[in-house]
Design goal:
Helix content: 25-40%
Structural class: alpha+beta
Shape: globular
Radius of gyration: 24 Å
CATH class of the largest domain: Alpha Beta
CATH topology of the largest domain: TolA/TonB C-terminal domain
Number of helices: 8
Low-confidence stretches: none
Strand content: 25-35%
Number of domains: 2
Largest sheet: 6 strands, mixed
CATH superfamily of the largest domain: TonB
CATH architecture of the largest domain: 2-Layer Sandwich
Length: 274
């Protein structure tokens, strides 16, 4: 039997393959894909609430998953939206409309933002949609303001002519009353003697719904989760610019004060310093 000999060329090739594998492995551990600003779960729940199932598709029993391809740039902006898995023209169009509500955190490599191609799937299921619309009482949503901006641009509050404002019933006539009536001090926070202020950033959509919730300051013991839950209960009148409803970024603070056994909330003014 002849002995196996390794030539210098073979050694060079093996070393090249080794370094390629190592380089790929290191890069895969340092590159993080783009993320929905509000997190996957809250984003999908918002899509469920915002979705308007096309009548034509519903009557025809058309269901499926629309797979969208797009580019997320270093600043989080999105371009080159393309449908790579189609369902129907009407469903595809609704998927794109829903997708444009999502704000993105860019991909990063070694901690630095980079531009990458990404994909996102939106599922259309008639049974699930019927269940969701039944729970909210209607299969459509009456917008608080007739004229809306269709550019999907997000404005800072100070850029609007009229800021978004909460809409309350006659019983919950203001924000403090609403919070007292709806927010519960988490048991875990009580047991661990936790107090603090949860700071949230979010977008008030032209529909008056809340999207893209980002936690700026978290408080443990379930306080952050409770603050998000209460924020999502609030209905909003959207911000206005030139008498057109626009998407507006806002902040919301919820205070958990165990010493005084109290809770409270405020909508900070732009530029307010704590």
């Amino acid at each position: 039997m002849s002995k196996l000999t390794i030539t210098s060329t073979t050694k060079t090739l093996l070393l090249f393959v080794f370094f390629v594998v190592i380089s790929f492995s290191i890069r895969s551990q340092t590159v993080f894909p783009p993320e929905c600003a509000g997190g996957n779960r809250l984003t999908r729940e918002f899509i469920d609430e915002e979705m308007i199932y096309p009548d034509k598709a519903m009557q025809a029993g058309i269901e499926g998953t629309v797979d969208l391809s797009f580019i997320v740039h270093e600043d989080g902006s999105v371009s080159n939206i393309d449908v790579i898995q189609k369902v129907s023209p009407e469903v595809d169009a609704e998927a794109i409309r829903l997708f444009k509500h999502i704000c993105w955190n860019p991909a990063t490599e070694l901690g630095r933002p980079i531009t990458v191609k990404h994909s996102y799937k939106i599922k259309f299921n008639i049974r699930r949609y019927t269940k969701i619309t039944k729970s909210r009482g209607v299969n459509y949503f009456e917008r608080p303001h007739e004229k809306i901006d269709t550019s999907f641009k997000v404005y800072r509050r100070e850029e609007t002519d009229h800021w978004p404002r909460p809409i309350f019933t006659s019983i919950d006539r203001n924000l403090p009353t609403f919070i007292v009536n709806n927010l519960e001090y988490p048991d875990a926070a009580k047991k661990q003697n936790i107090s603090g202020v949860v700071k949230l950033q979010f977008v008030v959509e032209t529909s008056g719904r809340v999207s893209n919730i980002v936690v700026l300051n978290a408080v443990g013991g379930g306080c952050t989760e409770e603050a998000i839950r209460v924020l999502r209960l609030i209905k909003w009148y959207p911000g206005l610019k030139n008498d057109i409803a626009v998407r507006t970024i806002m902040e919301f603070d919820l205070r958990f004060d165990l010493a005084n056994n109290s809770v409270g909330g405020t909508i900070p003014n732009p530029g307010q310093i704590y």
